[in-house]
Amino acid sequence: ELEKLGLRDDVDLHVYEVPVEYQTVQRLIPALWKKHSPQLVVHVGVSGMATTVTLEKCGHNVGYKGLDNCRFCPGSQCCVEGGPECIDSIIDMDTVCKRVSALGLDVAVTISKDAGRYLCDFTYYTSLYQSRGRSAFVHVPPLGKPYSAEQLGRALQAIIEEMLDLLEHSEDKISCQHEH
């Protein structure tokens, strides 16, 4: 849906479907970062437990015990051996949540600090590690429970545009500080 809606004119949007497979995530995420050198990567995952659009603040390195779609689980039960326990996104999710909620879309947006220790969290941590925090993860409820594809697409569009806005303004401040 987001591909149909698009983002601002100055944004190149690349959409990929990431399989629910640990080993594919470990190969694909670094390859996509290398291929595109993006300003930001936003992962979107469906959660059967979600009733809101949920902005995840951080990814976790350990505790992966569930088998993936290939019936595989990392022996170490972690994403990156020796990596930090938790990596926070550099995006201020509280601000994104407040701004998007203020837009009056017919979608509730909330914050979480636990993406669930399955492939969503595994993907998020892998991307955060690869990007030094320049990633985001958004959990969405299954279609129709309660939101339509169009509602979710509009919410994701607003969320990503707010994230890009925050990122651009934080980088303006950083470059200003380096000039003095």
What do these coordinates show?
- It catalyses: Release of an N-terminal pyroglutamyl group from a polypeptide, the second amino acid generally not being Pro.
- One of its GO terms (molecular function) is pyroglutamyl-peptidase activity.
- Belongs to the peptidase C15 family.
- One of its GO terms (biological process) is proteolysis.
- With 180 residues, the protein is an alpha/beta fold.
- It is globular and about 45 Å long.
- It contains five helices and six strands, in the order H-H-E-E-E-E-H-E-H-E-H.
- The strands form two sheets. It has a four-stranded mixed beta sheet, with helices on both faces. It has a two-stranded antiparallel sheet with strand order 3-4.
- It has one domain: Aminopeptidase.
Number of helices: 5
Please report which band the strand proportion falls in: under 5%, 5-15%, 15-25%, 25-35%, 35-45% or over 45%: 5-15%
CATH top level assignment = Alpha Beta
Total number of distinct structural domains: 1
Strand adjacency order, main sheet: 1-6-2-5
Assign the CATH superfamily. Peptidase C15, pyroglutamyl peptidase I-like
Gross CATH architecture = 3-Layer(aba) Sandwich
Main location: cytoplasm
Subcellular location: Cytoplasm
Function: Removes 5-oxoproline from various penultimate amino acid residues except L-proline.
InterPro entries: Peptidase_C15, Peptidase_C15-like, Peptidase_C15-like_sf, PGPEP1_Cys_AS, PGPEP1_Glu_AS
SSE blueprint:
Elements: H1 2-5, H2 22-36, E1 41-46, E2 53-56, E3 58-60, E4 86-88, H3 93-102, E5 109-112, H4 119-131, E6 135-140, H5 149-179
Parallel strand pairs: 1-6, 2-5
Antiparallel strand pairs: 2-6, 3-4
Helix pairs in contact: 2-4, 3-5
Pfam family, one: Peptidase_C15
EC number: 3.4.19.3
Subunit structure: Monomer.
